[in-house]
Amino acid sequence: MSVPRRDSPVFNDMPLVVLALSAVIAAVFLIGTMLPEFELWSRYLGVVITADIGEHPSPLGPWSPFLLHVFLHSGWLHFAFNMGAMLAFGTAAARPFGHGGRGQLGFLLFFFTCAAGGALGHIIANWGEMAPMVGASTALSGCIAAAGWARGGRNGMLRLAVPWLLFNLVLAVLGTQTAMTIAWAGHVGGLVTGAVLYPVFLAVFARTRRF
């Protein structure tokens, strides 16, 4: 009698690019907790700066934080929340790209495009104010929209994206009245970027797929 196969619900068919991104983000966070010097330099490279502070502190130039902020997190809770979102929404968004090199590259470009869109949204919403931002949730907000596209087309995207959008708009209203420092505009920027561009990235990088 054959024994039914039991696959892991988390790691079954998980794209390599998602595992690789998760591993790098985890490594940067864990090394930063042990080596303050490493954390300091990584923040020079990755923190999104919104206030006019003269010359940008990143030695890689003012554009590096648009991408590198995804590797930085402000604490264990922030890190754990984003890792959970990566495993759930990142995996769902990456699978339609396929397992080939072209598809993996396509998801990687999509992920960092959403990160850049989130950084831009945060900068616009906080122009002239000191509101530094770190975290992968900009890119993962785009993956929320993408996961909806992957599971149910445009209607599926709206079912996931609209509640996340409304939640962040509530944060925008409450942010001036509470001590919360959640970068709601970064989430919205990443979400909108993902909702608009995910079908484009799939058309270019993925196997033939229609929504």
TrEMBL record:
Task: Please give the InterPro entries that the UniProt record associates with this protein.
Answer: Peptidase_S54_rhomboid_dom, Rhomboid-like_sf, Rhomboid_protease_S54
- Give the matching Gene3D superfamilies: Rhomboid-like
EC primary class: hydrolase
Q: Which residues form the Peptidase S54 rhomboid domain?
A: 63-201
Query: Which terms in the Gene Ontology molecular function aspect does this entry carry?
Result: peptidase activity
Keyword Manganese: yes or no?
Answer: no
Q: Which UniProt keywords apply?
A: Hydrolase, Membrane, Protease, Transmembrane, Transmembrane helix
Biological-process GO terms, alphabetical: proteolysis
EC number(s) per UniProt?
A: 3.4.21.-
Keyword Signal present in the record's keywords: the answer is no
Transmembrane regions listed in the UniProt entry: 16-35, 66-93, 105-124, 130-150, 157-176, 182-206
Q: Where in the cell is it found?
A: Membrane
The UniProt entry lists membrane topology as: Multi-pass membrane protein
What is the first-listed, main subcellular location in coarse terms?
membrane
Q: Which family does it belong to?
A: Belongs to the peptidase S54 family.
Q: What is this protein called?
A: Rhomboid family intramembrane serine protease
Species in which this protein is naturally found: Hyphobacterium marinum
